[in-house]
Design brief:
242 residues, mainly beta, Jelly Rolls, single chain
Length: 242
């Protein structure tokens, strides 16, 4: 894949986001802890002020590996060459555990983080607001250096990811690649000594350069980053919705 640098979402942009506050388990400790997976129940959350909400779809929990070009998916349509057999991300919110839409590369973990921000828990985790003084605990994905989530965009307008800003040692950056265009790395390291907080990045959301089917990936670099969801906006009417 030829990579070209986009001019969106510089580190300065991310640094202007409000510090969303209060501590969590460190990156190294988080990767060695015993993890509890989310249930497969469907849920919906709007996360007012954080991004678009959307209906969820239940999916099997086994972590899917990102298929390589020399291991074609036997069930894939013969004309599909971009992540064969993987449905395009729907318009709105897709959560990190939805393995039908988001494939996992490397060795990412499911782990619990306590965070304080403008999000709300999914209904299968109680649906509580995370904006209170004590924040809330949520089971999300912890990407280690080089780990990634990947999916498919088709007739999409923009893309963003929810990563947690954290003052914990070992916090790294996210490198987002949208249809072959590599965005500026987004650092999630913070000087705050309070709880981490999830923010959307880049700001504004990255435009999708083509309406054709293409791959999008979110990779941690330089350390660990907590990721809970991605958001896709689509033209109106939404052409990739049933």
């Amino acid at each position: 894949m030829t990579r070209t640098h986009a001019t969106l979402a510089t580190l300065a942009t991310l640094a202007t986001l409000p510090v969303l506050a209060l501590l969590a388990t460190g990156c190294a400790e988080g990767r060695s802890m015993t993890h509890t997976s989310r249930s497969d129940a469907a849920f919906v959350t709007s996360d007012a002020g954080i991004g678009l909400g959307g209906p969820d779809a239940t999916s099997p929990r086994p972590d899917a590996a990102i298929p390589s070009s020399d291991e074609p998916d036997a069930a894939a349509p013969p004309t599909t060459t971009v992540l064969p057999g993987v449905p395009a991300l729907r318009c709105g919110r897709t959560y990190d555990h939805e393995s039908t839409y988001l494939l996992r590369g490397g060795a990412p973990d499911f782990a619990t983080i306590r965070h304080r921000d403008g999000t709300s828990l999914p209904s299968d985790e109680g649906g509580a607001s995370c904006g209170g003084a004590g924040g809330c605990s949520e089971n999300v994905t912890l990407l280690g250096d080089g780990d990634e989530l990947a999916g498919v965009l088709e007739r999409a307008a923009s893309f963003s990811v929810q990563g947690a800003q954290s003052g914990e040692p070992g916090t790294g950056s996210l490198l987002v690649t949208v249809c072959g265009e590599v965005l500026e790395p987004m650092s999630y390291a913070s000087s705050s000594t309070t709880l981490p907080g999830f923010v959307n990045g880049p700001q504004p959301a990255a435009p999708v350069p083509t309406l054709e089917r293409c791959e999008v990936s979110v990779r941690a670099t330089g350390g660990c980053v907590w990721v809970r969801a991605v958001t896709v906006t689509c033209p109106t009417p939404n052409p990739n919705q049933p």
